[in-house]
Specification:
heterodimer, A: 358 residues, alpha/beta, D-Maltodextrin-Binding Protein, domain 2, eight-stranded mixed β-sheet, three-stranded parallel β-sheet, 15 helices, globular, B: 288 residues, mainly alpha, MetI-like fold, 2 strands, 75% helix
Chain lengths: 358, 288
Amino acid sequence: MRIKKTVAALFAASILATAVPAQAETLRLLTWGSYAPDNIIKMFEEKYPDINVEVTFSNNEEMIAKLRATGGAGFDLAQPSHDRIYAAQLEYDIYKPLDLSKIDTSNMSVPLLDGVKANTTIEGEVYAVPHQWGTSGLMADKTKAPEFAGWGDLCDPKYKGKTSMRLKRTILLGTAFAMGEDPFAAYSDLDKYQDILDQVTEKLISCKDNIKAYWKGGDDLSAMMLSGEIVASETWDSTAYKLFGENENIVFIPPETGALAWIDTFALPRKGEADDAAYKWINFVMQPEIVKLMSASTGAIAAVEGGKDLLPDDKKAAVNAAFSDDDIKNLKFFANIPPGVEDMEGKALERIKAATGG
Amino acid sequence: MQKDIRRLSLILLFTPFALWIVLLIILPHIGMVILSLREKVAPRVYEYGLANYIDFINEPIYWNTLLRTGMMSLLVTTLALLIGFPIAYYIAKIAGNRTRGALFLLCLIPLWVSDLIRAFGWILLLRETGVVSSTLVWAGIINQPIEFLYNDVTVVVGLVYTVILFMIVPLVSTLDGMDNSMIEAGYNLGGNGPTVLRRIIIPYAMPGIVAGCIVVFMLTAGSYLTPILLGGKNSSWFTEQIYDQFITRYNWESGAAFGFLLLAFTSIVVWLGLKLSGQTLSTTVAKS
């Protein structure tokens, strides 16, 4: 008798255990640090009590590596930058096409939406829509480096030992622009691109002596800049805006050849299991009142009409101090990375890192 | 019956270890070998071949980095031994029973903090506006702040600090088992300090020395955080190359090949070390 009861209890428990997850859906987000702040997750879960949000913070390269390892399983919504969709999809088949009818695109900024669509359409299917955008450029302490204006100034002997950069592809592209080349145009002719890369490599090797250290993340960059150990650096705009909040002399400087602009997108991993919840999240965070909270957390500008006005006041002041309308027109959006380029750029970076000269 | 039970208990005791070795060590490595033998010819098209290994040989940057990592790891191992041996000797032989436990505990404390935090500790101390530099300026010893961070010396110092414990622990346990009367006998027979050290203590401690050196060398060559965070613009570390291949260049095939080369390289160095010092694993590590 007693055994029967136990069995019955176990049976009931197992039914409950299987029934509960079936009701509460889990949305597994793979996104950037600060792109899913707690307050927004809480509001979302209040609006959709049957959806549970789990967040994994990452960056472009690791997002793709994670999805590649599982063939696109393990996450329901990913947020890579717009230039990391096309080639990654061709090579590793890790995303699935979006059903645009389920996404409210009415308030998305038209040029950004069209740009992302153009960048991420494969065989007529769209794989991503924009979320937020921002730029990579330079920052300088106005009081110590008032004339800082272009990528090339990082290598100006005037600032010897007082500048920094991140040894990643951004600096290769920026330096190429500063040398009067257009690397994105050369993506279609890889031999020409290799030529440009060789020149850039040489330039950056000779510049090594001028650099204090290569920064690796926002934290070490901030520490070097705030302590005055460096006076100027390559930077993400959001890091520069944050520092502007602490020291108004530190401003973001769009390089004279144009700041490099990225758009972080929404894309569905190929084996995602909660597409509907993912679409709900996309539509939820693109509402103007949520955008405001999101931008306060990320420091990036939402891809909606008038996104700049939805920034919190201090960030808005920082953006206005940095960008004129001409600077905005001069933005260079990262072009799709064709297969093979990652390898060429990787080799160039290795050569720079290994060079002992300069 | 008795025999069956004994066999069963042996199997049961052995299973966790066997599972661990097979599932977490051998299987992943077989996967890595297969991966490292693939070469990409076009998107989503792969062929089997040795291209990744040939790439490594043809590109001086790669093997230079590997050699550099090996040399610096050897240096770290030597320094850890030179610094760790007197400490271990003091703990095992000179300190009283009560202080011994306390000292041992003191050595363990840094392990309670994660690698990352320890590296940041060094950064706070050594950076240009950090504690050391500003203290020296304040004391009037130097006029201008000095940057201690971002060079190879810092990397070596940081690594020695991280791994020295793994040298001290096996040394203490071997030295602990040594009878004090052996040292006394050495002196009674007319030996002086250096002779006793060379002829009695070191041979006795050899198992601990070899075990410590192997562990420290392997840990150092395979470390990632410390060289990355403390190293400067010229300090490449081979694990960084592996990370770059896997993550930033999406080139898992050559990343896997590099991983294997690192394993082979460190194994060869350990084997050479044993040969040159006339030791074998069975008389040293297995003995202790």
